[in-house]
């Protein structure tokens, strides 16, 4: 089942026992984990299976159970989580993988840290955000994406990773209201030194609503790894818009809406999105009031630079992280002044 197993971690199976970062628990522990897991309730259904809240040795964990027909997706996602040096506070923590059952009835497990609030998509339906929380969520999400995108050179280095399915449903909200990036099922890895690219076996693409214009009009330069990262930045800009939409700092907040909610239906087709994003050149609506506050104006400008139709004109994740971190500092200064 291994795809380009040369890049980080091991192909297919359960990975090294002590390679540390990214590989979760030691192999022998992983092999016994499924037996010790008690499923509590279902959290979400996906294309590949179902995610459950579960108990493992008194601890809450999340278990993604893949259909037995989706073994390739399961092993691909494990493989991504086992990437050397992947672990980061803003990337969903991987605990273990295991197989339960035999023969015709097998369950493929992926065990991960459990986050009570669930996805950012769910969180934004139920909560509005003050400006501090908005910036905190944005900084943490982009920090996770920056860590994915950044290549670390050397023999124990980390490949550059493009996510390819950035959206609010694939970002989780932690207890302290920072975010972490989840669902690495579509990610691709790249090592620049050897020009090694590993593309997922499945040719499935990301979520249509979040697809960058160059993905929609099929003009993306797929031989150039930077293109995948640039497409991630477009999707992240839409997530930044979702956050802004639910910010309560500048007047009454409207209920949660998905990006392009006023231009396409609930399950837009490829052609719907292409018409709106490429032909009409539309982007999510920017509220006038976002431009009246200095910090919010900067945030909005960063967001708009990231959804440029020209991939190379988009800011990099590192640049966005730096700019948003600066805004976070400014907010703290304002806050300090107000308390004097
Ligand atoms: P799929 O590949 O099927 O989209 P995901 O990994 O994105 O599966 O998970 C589907 C949904 O399950 C997420 O959108 C989120 O709502 C929920 N979920 C996934 N992982 C966790 C977790 N670790 N903690 C809490 N909720 C989670
Ligand atoms: Mg998902
Ligand atoms: Mg997935």
UniProtKB/TrEMBL annotation:
GO terms for cellular component: activin receptor complex; plasma membrane. Residues 1-36 form the GS domain. Keywords: ATP-binding, Kinase, Magnesium, Manganese, Membrane, Metal-binding, Nucleotide-binding, Receptor, Serine/threonine-protein kinase, Signal, Transferase, Transmembrane, Transmembrane helix. It is a single-pass type I membrane protein. The keyword Transferase applies. It is found in: Membrane. Residues 37-327 form the Protein kinase domain. One of its GO terms (molecular function) is ATP binding. ATP binds at residue 64. GO terms for biological process: activin receptor signaling pathway; cellular response to growth factor stimulus; nervous system development. Belongs to the protein kinase superfamily. TKL Ser/Thr protein kinase family. TGFB receptor subfamily. This is Serine/threonine-protein kinase receptor. The lineage of its organism: Eukaryota, Metazoa, Spiralia, Lophotrochozoa, Annelida. The gene is 20195512.
């Amino acid at each position: 089942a291994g795809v380009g197993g040369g890049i980080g971690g091991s192909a297919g199976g359960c990975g090294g026992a002590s390679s540390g970062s990214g590989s979760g628990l030691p192999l022998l522990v992983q092999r016994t984990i499924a037996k010790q897991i008690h499923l509590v309730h279902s959290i979400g259904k996906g294309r590949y299976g179902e995610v459950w809240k579960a108990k493992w040795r008194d601890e809450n964990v999340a278990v993604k159970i893949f259909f037995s027909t989706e073994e390739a997706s399961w092993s691909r996602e494990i493989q991504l989580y086992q990437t050397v040096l992947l672990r980061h506070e803003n990337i969903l923590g991987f605990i273990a993988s295991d197989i339960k059952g035999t023969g015709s009835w097998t369950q493929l497990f992926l065990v991960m840290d459990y986050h009570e609030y669930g996805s950012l998509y769910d969180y934004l339906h139920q909560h509005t955000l003050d400006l501090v929380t908005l910036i905190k969520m944005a900084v943490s999400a982009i920090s996770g994406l920056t860590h994915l995108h950044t290549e670390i050179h050397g023999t124990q280095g980390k490949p550059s990773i493009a996510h390819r399915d950035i959206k609010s449903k694939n970002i989780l909200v932690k207890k302290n209201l920072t975010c972490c990036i989840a669902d690495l099922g579509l990610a691709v890895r790249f090592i620049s030194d050897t020009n090694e690219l590993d593309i997922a076996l499945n040719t499935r693409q990301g979520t249509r609503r979040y697809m960058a214009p160059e993905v929609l009009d099929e003009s993306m330069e797929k031989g150039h790894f930077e293109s995948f990262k640039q497409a991630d930045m477009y999707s992240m800009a839409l997530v930044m818009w979702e956050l802004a939409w639910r910010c309560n700092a500048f007047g009454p907040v409207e209920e949660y809406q998905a990006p392009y909610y006023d231009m396409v239906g609930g399950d837009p087709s490829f052609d719907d999105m292409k018409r709106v994003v490429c032909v009409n050149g539309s982007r999510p609506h920017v509220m006038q009031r976002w431009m009246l506050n200095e910090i919010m104006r900067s945030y909005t400008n960063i967001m708009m630079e990231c959804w440029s139709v020209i991939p190379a004109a988009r800011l990099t994740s590192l640049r966005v992280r730096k700019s948003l971190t600066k805004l976070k500092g400014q907010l703290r200064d304002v806050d300090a002044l107000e308390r004097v």
